[in-house]
Automatic annotation (TrEMBL):
Name assigned to this protein: non-specific serine/threonine protein kinase
Annotated source species: Panicum miliaceum (Proso millet)
Enzyme class: transferase
CDD domains per the UniProt record, alphabetical: STKc_IRAK
A Pfam family the protein falls into: PK_Tyr_Ser-Thr
Feature: compositional bias, Basic and acidic residues: 357-367
Length: 367
């Protein structure tokens, strides 16, 4: 353990992180080890063997590992991390150890050895939301409606904590289905929070983000390249629409045209055709009122005007069904009126294609 961080590390080990504005039951319970040696992580991952690799993202590769006590870990070997001393890197990642919430991926520690910069997290046995909706686990149909509703609320609570209770406030900047991890009980744990801070100042943050956020980027981020809480909320809204429909954020229709999920869902929601939005894999086994609620909140979160999006303080009670008056007010918004064209116009996607709303009888390309 580096001497500069010994006090902070001891405090974290004893106390499990700082108290937040939320109830203490929301704090994470994962164990914080803090310091790992490169030798130990090589042993845990079989020398970062390809067969141990479980993911690849803009920040680096992720490997499954098992440490001496038998516990499983996820080891993120960073690429393009800031080339600084061990002390500088440790100072940057110290904040990750302070952020503790049951719906955030638990951070166990780090390794800074020579050029290596490695982060260690709890291993999530059920992979990611992406894997279950669109990836290798989608054929197994393990996400029934009860699990989807729980995942939505869990991920929302994680963002609520980052935006309103973490000190300092954290803008995630990379909310997407691959960063919503699922544990053995299919509870949501949001990962990759705070990693934007580790990208070197000389690198193109916008390029790194846009290349890995197809369909999730808010219009203002595409225009200005600056992540905000509103951008996180927009991305989360896309995830809600994915959970309800099973569609990808961007689908191809034909050889050239692409459609964004929001502009496919919105016309159907305006006409109250929620049964047509529902993922066919649910086999009509879902709560109509809950699905409608999730769709409405998802569309509100993806409003093209940032100031008209709800905050996460509003989103969580809406998803939990605790704000019925607010939901009714939301349903009466101009955005959802059948004759309204507000916020349903095409917007430029990161690929430069056009998100345009399909005709009422036009389907998206298959998910």
């Amino acid at each position: 353990m580096h001497p500069k961080l010994s006090r902070a590390a001891r405090w974290l080990l004893c106390c499990g992180g700082p108290a937040s504005g939320e109830d203490l039951s929301d704090e994470g319970s994962g164990s914080l080890r803090w310091g790992f040696s490169l030798r130990e992580l090589r042993s845990a991952t079989n020398s970062f063997n390809y067969d141990n690799k479980i993911g690849e993202g803009p920040f680096g590769s992720v490997y499954w590992g098992q440490v001496w006590d038998g516990s499983q870990i996820a080891v993120k070997r960073l690429k393009n991390s800031k080339n600084g001393t061990e002390v500088e890197f440790a100072s940057e990642v110290e904040i990750l150890g302070r952020i503790r919430h049951k719906n955030l991926l638990s951070f166990r520690g780090y390794c800074a050895d020579g050029p290596e910069r490695i982060l260690v997290y709890d291993y999530m046995a059920n992979s990611s939301l992406y894997a279950h909706l669109h990836g290798p686990l989608s054929a197994e149909c393990l996400l029934d409606w009860r699990r989807r509703a729980s995942i939505a609320i869990g991920a929302a609570r994680a963002l609520l904590y980052l935006h309103h209770h973490a000190t300092p406030q954290i803008i995630h900047g990379s909310i997407k289905a691959t960063n919503v991890l699922l544990d053995l009980d299919f509870q949501a744990h949001v990962g990759d929070f705070g990693l934007i801070k580790l990208i070197p100042d000389g690198m193109d943050h916008e390029k790194i983000t846009s290349e890995n956020q197809r369909g999730y980027l808010a219009p203002e981020y595409i225009m200005f390249g600056k992540p905000t809480a509103g951008c996180d909320i927009y991305s989360f809204g896309i995830i809600l629409l994915e959970l309800t429909s099973g569609k990808r954020p961007i689908e191809k229709s034909g050889s050239v045209k692409t459609y964004g999920i929001r502009n496919w869902v919105l016309p159907l929601a305006k006409e109250g055709r929620y049964d047509e939005i529902a993922d066919s894999k649910l086999s009509d086994k879902f709560s109509e009122s809950e699905l409608k609620r999730m769709v409405l909140v998802g569309l509100a979160c993806t409003h093209s005007e940032p100031e008209k999006r709800p905050t996460m303080l509003e989103v969580v009670p809406l998803l939990k069904g605790e704000s019925k008056e607010t939901l009714l007010k939301l349903e009466r918004e101009e955005l959802f009126r059948p004759d309204s064209t507000v916020s349903s116009q095409g917007t430029s996607t990161p690929e430069g294609s056009t998100d345009s709303a399909p005709r009422k009888d036009q389907e998206l390309g298959g998910a």
